[in-house]
Amino acid sequence: MSNRLRWLLLGSPLSTQQENEERLGNPHALAVFSPDALSSIAYANQEIFLGLAIAGSVALNLSFPIALAIVGLLIILSLSYFQTIQGYPSGGGSYIVARENLGTFFGLVAGGALLLDYLLNAAVSLSAGVAAIASVFPILAEYRVGIALFLLAVITIINLRGVRETGKLISIPVYGFLTIYFGMLIWGLIQVLRGALPPGVYAPLPVSEPLTLFLILHAFSTGCTALTGIEAISNGVQSFRSPESRNAGKTLVVMAVIMGLLFLGSIGLTQYLAVIPNAHETILSALARRIFGSGILHLLIQAATMGILVVAANTSFAGFPRVASSLARDRFLPRQFQALGDRLVFSNGIIFLSVACGLLIILFDADTHLLVPLFAVGAFLAFLLSQTGMVIHWLRTRERSWRIKAVLNALGAALTGITLLVVWITKFLDGAWITVVFIVGVVYLFLRIKSHYDEVARELSLDGLPPTLRPPGPLRVIVPIHSVHRGTIEAIRYAQSVSANVIAVFVELEPGSGEHIRQKWHAWFPELPLEIVSSPYRSVIGPLLAFLDETDQRYNDSQLSTVLIPEFVPVKWWHGFLHNQTAWGLKLALLYRRRRLGYQRMIIDVPIHLKR
Amino acid sequence: MSNRLRWLLLGSPLSTQQENEERLGNPHALAVFSPDALSSIAYANQEIFLGLAIAGSVALNLSFPIALAIVGLLIILSLSYFQTIQGYPSGGGSYIVARENLGTFFGLVAGGALLLDYLLNAAVSLSAGVAAIASVFPILAEYRVGIALFLLAVITIINLRGVRETGKLISIPVYGFLTIYFGMLIWGLIQVLRGALPPGVYAPLPVSEPLTLFLILHAFSTGCTALTGIEAISNGVQSFRSPESRNAGKTLVVMAVIMGLLFLGSIGLTQYLAVIPNAHETILSALARRIFGSGILHLLIQAATMGILVVAANTSFAGFPRVASSLARDRFLPRQFQALGDRLVFSNGIIFLSVACGLLIILFDADTHLLVPLFAVGAFLAFLLSQTGMVIHWLRTRERSWRIKAVLNALGAALTGITLLVVWITKFLDGAWITVVFIVGVVYLFLRIKSHYDEVARELSLDGLPPTLRPPGPLRVIVPIHSVHRGTIEAIRYAQSVSANVIAVFVELEPGSGEHIRQKWHAWFPELPLEIVSSPYRSVIGPLLAFLDETDQRYNDSQLSTVLIPEFVPVKWWHGFLHNQTAWGLKLALLYRRRRLGYQRMIIDVPIHLKR
Known about the structure:
mainly alpha
């Protein structure tokens, strides 16, 4: 039954040979990797407005200049990443670029930063998506955590199905969003040019802070969250059809152009029409309502916004597992993140991301404004390390026109570095400090995991072991018995087939019961020793453990006794409660001692099958 | 550390020899077994009032006559149980008496009824205890579930410490309660005789139902909850010092007299003074306030009431595990209820009762009035079966003066039967139907458990087995390996010491990796076979299971292959997440298949110890 459910939700397994067929065409790839970037207008605009509004309505006229600065940064970053794709055609995420050029440590910082950023992107996008639809139906705002978690579950299942199907499914919302938004912006522009939409004047707003440089930089840095999706394509070059890097580069350029137009267009119109949001409505919703009125078109725009935001969260599900897999391949994360699942996706990474994102949504109450200060820090840190790494890369490889490429990447690194500093300083107390703690912690964890795996590899190494090995001495097998019945006899027969040195042990709870067992025992196994252990406190496990230790000491042959545990296998599940308490207790006690003593015995489980 | 906590909470283990020293002197025994009966005035009075009040204030004058009828029943029941104690000096709970005289089925009905009654007594007493103290501090009413659960936890821990200490600890609240209550009743009587407390007149109450016979019987049947503790002593004869039945009989008479006086005294004064309760205050609290005013004495009375109710819940902790142990000894309940824990108490029964009672308190919101309709049915059913059983007992044994004893028990049975009928009819829809469902269900469960144990005993019987057994053929041991390292070599060496027929198996996830392993393998174990299983869908567990099944078919020697699972034993707990995923997955899959296929393989756990 669980297999049928699995098949229904996730589809049938895909074989390794099918991997190549899962590659994406450019339009599908754009749909998979761009939503993070494209959708960010849904929250970046809003954050710029909120950042400026506290200095009064005059400050709001700085929205467009700030947007221009951000688009400038977008151009530099796109060119930088275009070069990264050419330099790392096999997929050059910030982690790989930084590790190869700046060393392991900076690679890990980039990797941790990227993981954090993907995680936050998923949480922010889902929260903003719910806010978009709640702008039309304010009653939904109350249930935003539940709705966000439901969307998260849907995305998780879709991603566990595999990359190509993800690409197909999400093309609809992505291209739907682009059509509708460009339609709105063009129609808005036409109306403005026709004079049907006159320029707006901001109503005076209460001024709570003066318009300082810090405040402007703060608004700029919150707006920079718009840029967080830009590196997605460079991480996923391997998902493109060949020639991979050419296709990836083209797709990156198309994405950057679309994004720049959307961002400038929406912010430009918002400022020209002096649109302001309110507590129940996002700024984009207010803009759409100004252009189209409160009708079906407004609803359509908001639905499309939610759609793109949900698939933006999806971008994280493409990126996070890839980075985790790279880290796991280098032994900085547990092995299981490395493995492709049976649908050719990194299932463990997807599941981990989903759980972490769900916790974040619950913790931050699905509130975009609370989550945004944490956002962007991770992304810009990764950008900085990646760009710096690329400069080193060009200096080292001296490929064709390396000078101009190095200069371009250096420019990108410098601008990113300045932005990162601004973001960090202006948003530190708002929550950016959490990201610092997180990145430091996660890098420490990476290093600990790696050093553990290295240590294990050293311990398990075969160097220095003689090629022929002495066969070990005969085992000593100890079988705890409760009474002499068919099951006991099966267990003892099995023990005898394992070793000639079998010792049975009986724990005497009621005085005198040992003698009774001994007589029965000798009738069946006249030659096998049976030891009777008395238990004045009526405990079974304690005396058994003591007997095991004592036997090892008595024999003193540098061998731990093996414990053979007979276990009943009932036919009906509830019969399980009626048997095996001692077997489970003994196993649990051996496990607990393993933690305490640092060693564990060999255990042989012998099932005794019951027929009814 | 968990051992030290255990010692602190529960004390050191007690040896079997100490069992006799744990017997109780009569005053302590009274404190252990009587609180259930004595404390019931705290809710029975209230329920009689609530039952009559709906017919208006005139009906309230029936309180005292109803109390008289209940005390009449108390006298008959006490005499009956006095005889039971003489007839069953080794402890004659309803379960044993009914089973021996009426047959297994009625014994089980009595046993199930008793278990239910003990459970409800604990829940009702704790709820009423919290209500008593909330009558003084109304703010506590809001937190009643939490307070009741806290008290439950305290009682559980005290009981896990053992019987004698329980007796000592609870003597204080029991004798404190008796002193204070008799003091109040006597002082009230003196005041009445002096004329300082004039007779009250009930204010007119809204009449919602006419005063029918049904209504009177309903009030009577709710009042009968007062009698539910009467059988406790007869279940626990074994806890008394010898001569057990003499001591138990004496204690029963003392308990019945005290209880009758308390009940008649409190109801008599309540009616004489026309005391009525309100939503925030119990009727006993109102009575105490009338006699003593709202001072320190009133608080003291309420504290004593809570105290006796808490130890009344404690009575269930003495009785429930004993009945469960008797049922387990006869194989109607899982074996673990039979065993004495290391403090000479039936620990498993105590823990089970505690959990069930906690759930009941949460489910019924710690509301006495909701719980009471379920109560008493179980007790009276057990009484009926016990009394009827005693009639048969006397007819069979024909001991000295058996005629008069049989008549007395028959009278008890008849009255109990009538009362049970009344209780059932008048409270069926209020919740008594739940008890019918419960008792039917639990008797069915008893019979199923017994039949399972009987079946297992038949299956495991040695009858017909030849006394000398052919030794089994050599084992086939299959070792799944992941790579060739020191751990693999340890595991293979162990496998070789178990059997000469060892097969290693490697699941090839990446095409080509198998060849690499094979070369390394042949350098180390030139003579041992290594099988390579390809896995196109990158799953490890599935191909391994298929290989096991296929190997068994290939050899076709009526033997299931044994699986040897090497497992890393890390030093630090969190390293566990970095290893053994395949080992755990394989074990889980084998367990899951056990459910599905009905058989399980032998499993050998070989620990590979890591040093750091």
